[in-house]
Amino acid sequence: MVSMIPTKLQKAHHITCIDVQQGVSMNTAEGEKDDVSIVLEDSHFFGESESKDCPTVDACYCEPKFAFMTGANVNDAKNLMPTSASSIPISNSHGEGNWGGKLTCNRCHFSNFVGKSMCGETSVVFQSNPDSADKIPPHYFNDAVFTNVDETGWAFFHKPPTKWANVKDCGNFPCTAPNNLIFSF
Predict the structure, then answer these.
(1) Is 52:22 a contact under the CB 8 Å cutoff?
(2) DSSP class of residue 158?
(3) What is the pLDDT of residues 126-172, one digit of tens each?
């Protein structure tokens, strides 16, 4: 579930993702809005399951998996239903991030993230948005439950690509915002 909606308050609840390649990425968009709130509640995310991604050698679908991609509050927006390939992925924003806003996750449960999937790909609870060059709002997790999540299944954070090093945006070094995350539990 990915959103990039022009709103000051975005809520989602009772989402269940099982053996999912990509879980949720909730984002608000379109204009300077520093008092934005994104809320996810009462949802459950399952990583590895007994279902094999490679039931046979010739029928394998092995991709990295995560439950929760960092959200953002950005200046540009995308249509709810993409009408062109350039709008995909929806989580890819080219607009500037706003300084305000917050993301709150209440009573969410994360199960069976053990670092590597059965077929050897990454399987983690949290992933940073690889396309988010600007400020990422603080993420607050209240009453989160982690079941069968080992130390390698916790998170994968992307390094800023060297192509982000330009004088206009971040000077002569890649923007570091993707590494400046605040997660509070």
Answers:
(1) no
(2) P
(3) 988 776 656 788 999 999 999 999 898 888 776 766 766 666 665 66
